[in-house]
Amino acid sequence: MFKGQPKGLIAAALANMGERFGLYTMMAILVLFLQAKYGLNGKDAGLIYSIFYFSIYILAFVGGLIADRIRNYKGTIFAGLIVMAAGYVLMAIPTPTPVPNKTLFLTITLAGLFIIAFGNGLFKGNLQALVGQMYDNEKYGKLRDSGFSIFYMFINVGAIFAPFAAVGIRNWWLKSHGLGYNADLPDLCHQQLEGTLSGDALARYQELIPQVGGSASDLTGFANEYLSVFSTGFHYAFGAAIVAMLISVVIYLGNKGKFPSVQKKAKDATVTKEEVKMDAKEVKQRIYALLAVFSVVIFFWFSFHQNGLTLTLFAKEYTELSIFGMDITAEVFQSMNPFFVVFLTPIIVAVFGWLRAKGKEPSTPRKIAIGMFIAALGYVLMLVGSLNVPLHEDVVAMGGLEQAQRVTPFLLIGTYFILTVAELFISPLGISFVSKVAPPHLQGVMQGGWLGATAVGNQLLFIGAILYESIPIWMTWGVFVVACVISMFTMIFMLKWLERVAK
What we know:
Layout: H1 8-38, H2 42-70, H3 73-92, H4 102-133, H5 144-155, H6 157-176, H7 185-194, H8 199-211, H9 219-254, H10 262-268, H11 273-277, H12 280-304, H13 310-318, E1 322-323, E2 326-327, H14 336-357, H15 364-385, H16 392-398, H17 409-437, H18 443-459, H19 461-470, H20 473-502
Antiparallel strand pairs: 1-2
């Protein structure tokens, strides 16, 4: 799998692990943190989540412009690592909970999220552009797709551990205060403080308090204490991302010499064969092709990145939190996707390598179209598995479902497996397609454009939260099935044109 790859590939991937660790920390706990600390409903927390993810990817376009303008990808990448670490520091500092001034402290949280997003924008697209530059010659050109798949696999190693680290820190902090974890309690505590807790929900609240080590003699006092400890544990969980970012800084600086240098290339006045041939008409064709692909993948990311929003809410509210007799938490499901990325990448790379040897490997645009179809199948599974679950508003009125009333965790595990296969057909290969087709002087901007398309899809994520709380759950998954199918047929319609431009 590694044979013939550039020596800087693994170093770049390892340097990216800190960013991915932080990203999956956010994906696992951000919505749950916002609900626990500020008492936000799914729609409001989902809106913040979608804006944050929009910012992460749209700012990559800005980061690409900066790097392309100053022709210093390495320096821009390093600045991004430092800025991201500063944002996680702001998120990790504990603030009072329940919040005495919601506007003030929510603004502080949003500022931390923006700093993280801006740092990510400086880092993410430019590192991908740097990896693409490793393949801009005849020696490595044929290995571009497999190279980006390997890169994608290694950056997800950190993501596997992020949810476990976040959950471990949060639960350790609860335990140190003599309390246990329950996914339904933060919502019930906020309802108690707001004076809206009654009926079945009140009975469930009183039932759960002694189960986590509290006393039901003072319902308001317990609500204040539990929310404070629970949210502080989340703050400290963000601190784990700081450590990961610092490790990435050390790896990046230690291997900086292995990465291609744009400045040195310009100084030596060496140009590739591709650069010599490219004229204004070809540049336009390439940009049009990339813009077309960007517009299509918006629908995929709108569906795929529900893993940190509606799929996480589904895990918390509808899924049995036990596997083979072991208790788990809703956040743990976020480790499924990166685990499957690492597990499946060698298999998919081997299959594509075997097809390449036989001269039958699908083109990159064709692989992306196949990935869209596979993603639709993942949400078909969720649709079928959710046909008999109650409405969200009924679950809230009951104060949460008992474990016996919930669906099997293997529904989500199976869905994450299918969605990960789809991701491996789309995300690393899409990045590879951009690095191959983008004009050499627009590498950073075009990688930023790919991430910008991801940003638009992420901005639409809040629609999923609105649907989740407004219509039957199975219909919500049906919307994502339709989005993925539309993407697939659009890619198929453009296939011959994209293949011709990519040659």
